[in-house]
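Human: Respectfully, please carefully check these tokens:
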Amino acid sequence: MESRFGTFSPVAKRRLSRSSIAVVGCGAIGSRTALSLARLGVKELRLIDWDVVEECNLETQAYTKKQVGTKKVEALAQLIGATGSPTLAVPIHSQLTKSSAAKLLAGADFAVDGLDNFQSRFALNAACRKLRLPLAFAACARADGMAALLVNKKNSPCLRCIFPKQPQDQDCSVVGLLPAAADFASGLQVALVASSLRPIQTEGLFYFNLENPMLERVSIRDNQKCNACRGIK
């Protein structure tokens, strides 16, 4: 498949074509990000989710009506295959937890956070921190969202540095989700994955709102009292 992505250097394109990326959570953001990464020619996408496609998912997620009742990871692998991309999609029907995270992420070069709750996000963050695995975080609800690249190197911030206490989850089935917000969050997430391939990565926490359109970048730094960085469970 011919590559037409002029913003990527030849070195970055080669790195993508040799990379294994774990997409953890295949909902509104994760399904979009996985499809975009496949179109960029990533070598392998490890799709990790325990849920199945429901009728209510069709408005905000990448799935089709024919896929209702199918495991999300299998449905997403089908969609990736239909793009004509050479990407190998590996569906893993499993829930990431504190005890399973290290095994699910073993051998990956990068992790993408497509989850919808902070308990699972913190488990993913802790595992990535321990494995020194770069992580692209993204979240959205209603018409706003956020994203950040967490390189997980020494003295770099992790998700728990940004959110020392577990935030209250926003249930999109209750508060609603503008599909364009998921598009925007996913676009930021893919851009941050691309940034990780450059000598100078994009830093900070990006916050956006599409109701009153704005995009803001906030500086973040490591927290010396962070439990995840100190290895405290």
